[in-house]
Amino acid sequence: MINTLKNLISSLEYSYSLTLDMNFLTTTVTKYENLIDEENTSSLEELMYIHYLIALCDDNLRNNDKSLHHFNLCLYYSIITNNETYIGKCYLYASKLYFILSDLDEYVYCFNKAEKIFTSNNNYCDLSKLYIYTILHNLRLGICTSKVFGFIAKTLNLLTLYENEFSAQTYMILGSVYAIYLKDNYYAIELYKKALFLANKYNLVTLKIMINYFIATGYIDLNRNNEGCKILENLLSDTVAVPPITMKCVFTLELLNLYITTESNIDYIGKGIDFIQENLILLPQLDRLQFISQLLIIKCRLGLLLNNQSIDTLLNWITKSNEIYTVYKTSYRFSHADYTINCLFGDIYYEFEDYLNALEYHKLALEFSSMYESKYVIYAHQKIAKDYAALNNYKEAFINMEKVDKIRSTIQHVNLLDNYTKVYKEYEDFKENEETKNQFFANLSHELKTPINIIYSSIQLLNMFKDTNDDKFKGYYGKHEKSVTHNCLRILKLIDNLIDTTKIDSGSFNLTFVNYDIVKLIEDITLSTLPYIEIKKLNIIFDTEIEQLEIKCDPYAIERIMLNLLSNAIKFTNNGGNINVIISLKDTNVCIKVNDDGIGIPPSMRDQIFDKFIQVDNALNRKKEGSGIGLSLVKSIVELHNGRVYLNSTRMRGSEFIILLPNVKSMEPYDKIICNTYVPNTSKISAEFSDIYELN
């Protein structure tokens, strides 16, 4: 049962709310609440997971009080079972809910608790989620302080320390923060594109759809309407990656607004309205009312454009829309609603020559416009200028048009400054990339040239003796055959690493996941390295706190990870040194440690050690070979398992690498995913350990 609960939690925990099936959430809550009510013999750990699952579902259903109740119960069981990961998670969600419920003292207490736990455990993913919630809730209340900017900076920094499926969502949310609240659509689109790259890498189909939608809205806000329109039309016409119905309704609304703004495809607007109205019944109640509110706005805008509705009808529509918005203001999913509704009130009154009421509402729209992009401030001033002109107050009309000119001038100046800053940053990045590239090619040349020279020299020596008697030639061949083989393997390893790095960067590196005993797998891989351990007379100890545990993994990808870490440990540990491989359970993860008492990693290199082409010793006359690609590959492969790998920076001697893999099983049919045997890949092992020897 615990594995079922874990997998359900995993499917919900980092999912974007728009992608979730509300009926499934409601059914799940009912099922597991009934299970608790039956007073069965669930263990304390099971009760912890059950309450957490119910709380997650209720949170997405926006049942805030109920969700908080179950998170507090989960916290109780987490403390009893000493599960620090879930203690932190419960404090995370409790802080979010207390903020929504305006209990700021409890919010601060829970936030500090969660932050402390996540920081001490290097749980960068949940820490970034904690900061994201804090950023969003503050900005939704109009709080945009230096502290909020600090959380944004911290989150962006955390994204450089980990990468998994949630990273894509985090980049997307930060993009929306910059677009909606910080009025920087240029940077927002940059963040969206980073999110899209990761969504493609992890094949997150629904999230890719959502990110493309945000990119489209970014283009629209930058007045690049054709680009935005094309993306939206492609999303709605895609028959392969079909958006969920809620998303289709959102995209249709956005497209309808765009068509009205550009006065194009007017015939489609009625069809779009009909499509949303027909599908309202499929939407959750809260979403249904908000879509009705937006449809009423669309109808008002269309009525004003076509001039085919009475003032009473238009005012009735916009009043109903405003009533819904007022009720759901704090959870209203559509942006600019306060500005748009007041603008439409003003536009309706202006159309029917009630200029005083038009002026009043356009001034209200101006107040709200300051929270959004500058173009909305410009539109509001332009409407106010028209109102004053209609009232024959040309002085005030002129003042407002002057403000429009001033804002436009400021925007041009800011854009020039931003462009200069961007170009300068790109130049600095280019210089840094050139240095890295040059260093890499110098290393690559060295890595290729050295074994090729050795192979070539061996062939020349063999050629000198090819005409001698067979026994003598065999003697020379036997002497140099090992050297040739060894150096061929070094070249093959380098080429394999380069190919796999390219595949990972392009998102085409595929894993074959099975349910496999991770303890046996790590032990078998460790034992396969004994011949190389013995070369340097090292001591290796394999230790595990658990005897057997099946998890979802790719055994040969895990082999790749472990061989790299073990070859590094052997390479950089002096003769007679010690290497330890330790397996344990750490909350919801399997923890694998590989440590040694070798030369260690300098403090200045620890933050870069997983970067591509980074080596502890960059000198071309170094004694240890290596291209600087291995640890970068390790990090990427671990992250493709939704895991994390990091260097224990507190270790005083040698190095310790820690891998955390999710303790979950594949939910595929059992006969499709089970794997009973792992056979060490001897050629891969030989290639991986081909550079452990010192150069003479």
From TrEMBL:
One of its GO terms (molecular function) is phosphorelay sensor kinase activity. It is an enzyme of class 2 (transferase). InterPro entries: HATPase_C_sf, HATPase_dom, His_kinase_dom, HisK_dim/P_dom, HisK_dim/P_sf, Sig_transdc_His_kin-like_C, TPR-like_helical_dom_sf. Residues 443-665 form the Histidine kinase domain. It holds the Pfam family HATPase_c. It comes from Clostridium gasigenes. The keyword Kinase applies. This is histidine kinase. Keywords: ATP-binding, Kinase, Nucleotide-binding, Phosphoprotein, Transferase, Two-component regulatory system. It catalyses: ATP + protein L-histidine = ADP + protein N-phospho-L-histidine. Its EC number is 2.7.13.3.
